[in-house]
Each structure stands twice: as C-alpha cells, then as structure tokens.
Structure of PIG-L family deacetylase:
Amino acid sequence: MTGVVVCVLVLTVFTVCPVLPWTMRQVVAAERADRFVQVVAHADDDLLFMSPDLFGAVLGGRVTTTIYLTAGEGPTGWEDDRDPREYAGDRQAGIRAAYAYLAGVRDVWRTRILQLGRLPVRVDTLAASPRIRLVFAGLPDGGDPRADGGRDALQRMWERGACVRRFTGPCPHPCVRREDVVATLRALYDRYRPTVLRTLDPNPQDWHGDHTDHTISAKFAAEAARGMKLKMLAYRGYTMTGWPANLSWQASRLKEAVFQVYRRHDYRAASGWRYAAWLKRMYPIRPEAFGP
Ligand SMILES: [Zn+2]
C-alpha cells in the first residue's frame, strides 16, 4: 500500500556535535551505490550486532534506513518505578544521537508519521544528511508483560496470529496482526527500494540462545522481502557472545565509540559484561540461512 503522510512533526534536538577521529573512519570500507535497509527488534541491535558493517553506508553518505519493530520498553515500569514510555523515547534519542555522531553532523532530525496500512510508523530523517532514516514501529517489546496477551508479543503475532496494540505511537492504536506488520515492512521496502537488506538471525541454531524478538524480527523482515530482488544479509545476535572476538582493535574502538553515544540514553544498558563482548564481535551469516 502506498504510504500516506497523515501528520508531520518537526523534531529539533541540538547537542554538541562530536567528531569521529579521522583514523577511525579508515576502518570502514567505502560502500558502493547500494541502498540499505536494516530491520531489527530494538534500538541498539544495529549498533551491537550489525556493526561495523552498518557504518559504511552512514560514513559514505549512502541511502540507509533502519527499522526498529519494537519500542524496546522491556519490563521498565513493571519491575521498577521508571516511566516505560519515557524510556522508549530515551532509546530513540540514543539511537538518533549515535547515527548523528557517526555521520559527523548535528543531532537534528525531521519527524513524520507514515500511515502504512494498519501499522503506522514514525520516520526520523537526519536533517543534515537526509539519506539517513530511522523508522520506529513501536510494537511491544517481548519483555513487556503489559502487552495484549502478555510477554513475547512479536512471537505470538508470528506464530499464533495474535492481535496486539502498539506500545508507542501518536496515532490511534488498533491492534495489528502478523500480516499487518509484513504489509508495513513491504510498503517501507517499496518506498526506500533497498538493494541490501540486513536482519538479525532468522534461524539461530540455539533458539533460546537469542532474544526471541531478534529472531522474529528477522523472520518478519524476510517474509516481507519474499519475491523481491535484493541481497539479504543476516547477523548473529546474542548467540555470538561465546564465539571468538573477531574485530580488529580499530573496528572495535569505533563500534564502542558509537555505542557509548547511545548508551548514555539507556539506563538498562549502563553495564553488563555481554556488551563488552558484543563490541568486539560481528558475525554475518551465510544467505542460505534464510531458507525457503
Ligand atoms: Zn535487542
């Protein structure tokens, strides 16, 4: 379905604009004239699991769009006193700041809401580098027991046809089903015409080794791309934790520098040994992992 702009907002966020050290830019290979779409579950999955591959398009000024299916609120506000909507907003602010930092421009974005079928999405476009977009679908995080039907909303939508209302979003909230998510992703692909689609691992060997939101987000992304001519790349999520560190010192430093910009906005990511492990690793998966 063709996207219709139902409302336009302008978001202006000014921060001091840090500059990446010149030497760090050299660790990221220049990309060719591809257009990239990433589909992930949470607003740091791209930084943790698809980086530094992700960075080439941003640093090279290519067209790149990252789609975050969930609001990433987790159990915030359920197991502590924080406001979960504020936290979801913090995560969005964090990922915007990280991309602006990587692009070397001010953290100023233009925001609009696209009504794509039954699942509207928020699209933030980096003002000084409008080829960079972040799309937030606002579905409930798998760790949120307040979602319609309880935890694991994405998984229940994928496997059992559950109808679930979004957790965040400025427009009315009808519940949406698997086919609505697929239709919105398909509409976003049609709009942004990726030649390369990056996802998390849709078929981890150890299902319980990764966050189910990661796995299901990859299945949604692949389902929406069915029949389209594009290159699909998948990346291991939590399951890479025990694998050997495989990034160079420089690549790891760059990954850490970008993630630290995000991390200042995410109290749940403030500590944890697994983050240190992920910042030293990136594991792409062979394309056949997508299967039929
Ligand atoms: Zn995640």
